[in-house]
Amino acid sequence: MRRGIILAFQIAAVFIGTIVGAGLASGQEIKQFFTEYGYRGFWGILICCFIYIVMGYIISSISLKYNLKSYNELINLVIKPKIFAGLTDGITSLFLISGSAIILAGSGALVHQYFKVSKWVGILVMAAISLIILLRDTKGLIEINSFIVPSLIIVLITIFILYIFFSKEMVSANDIKIIPRYKDNWFLSTLLYSGFNILGCSGVIVPLSAEMKNKKSMLWGIVLGALVLTALTIIINFMLLLNVPYIFKYEIPLLYISNRFGSLIQILLLGIIWLEMFSTEVSDVYSVGKALNQIFNISYKTSVVIIILTAIPISLVGFVHLISIIYPAFGIISLVFMVQCIYFYFKNCR
């Protein structure tokens, strides 16, 4: 019983840490996929929660039943014909490597914006420390998220409470409703956002399911992770909405919001943003490393070194540019992946 609860919390931490990367922790993702749609963005966040729980359960169930060890095995199992499966596998690997590059770019943007030093400093430090943890395999993945995610929750809630306390006159349902929206297709944006997150998470959920071998703990971990992630996203979106249009000027909108609370809060937020970038960097590279190990029989340690060396030059494209182009494109691909997973589950796992 106690071990099952501990496993559920560890799985929840890894689930949250995988999704809360550079884009979400900085506020950039939330701004693009939810805040720009006005108060309707909150409906999108709730729909994302439902999708996370359903798809996480389906992917874990398929993985456990067929003893899958990496996302490429899942793709080749559920997607037909084989040619399309191979294409999807390659695209998924590219997505995760791109995600890794986005995290590196985000680290560079964070260091450059606050410390006014070269982006290379943030990129190389992130790459080096990630490699150290990645060489510890699944144990390292669980350890870092078990520390980082609780820290994230504490800092974000602290900032939210401070914001509410010092901005009482601005906080009301009516204020939220009258904030202008800049885009209209909020439902499509929601599907795209949840889609690329599920695609990214599959690279962690599959090997975790294989190692944990506990369906109940996996389910409760995914549910807990989705609920906490949803609450954090709502908090971030709420603060961003009340700071429209000023947040559109910054690569890291939450840093702009925290400026009013003093240097200590700023430093804490910067630390958490960097740590969450780090967590997702590890998750993305871990996922592709496991896949390369299965496909090409390359050792896991060699695989992660190759992936990080590949991601560094891609990161130079730029943080916001990468998020605005790559994320929606891979979101569309991931929608097809989700539909095929659902079809396979109801056909073969019921």
How would you sum up this structure, described in words?
- This protein has 350 residues and is mostly helical.
- It is built from 15 helices and no strands.
- The protein has helices spanning 2-19, 22-26, 28-33, 40-66, 71-78, 82-115, 119-134, 137-166, 173-177, 186-212, 215-241, 253-258, 263-296, 300-314, 319-348.
- α1 crosses α13 (263-296), α4 (40-66) runs parallel beside α10 (186-212) and α6 (82-115) packs antiparallel against α13 (263-296).
- The two termini are 26 Å apart.
Main features:
mainly alpha; 350 residues
| Anisotropy-based shape | globular
Could you give a short account of the major beta sheet? none
Cα(first) to Cα(last) distance is 26 Å
**Oligomeric form of this entry?**
single chain
How big is the Rg?
19 Å
Mean pLDDT score: 85
Number of helices: 15
What fraction strand? under 5%
Helix/strand order, N-terminal first = HHHHHHHHHHHHHHH
Task: Please give the number of β-strands.
Answer: 0
Structural class: mainly alpha
Taking pLDDT < 50 over at least 5 consecutive residues as the criterion, the unreliable ranges are: none
Helix percent band: over 70%
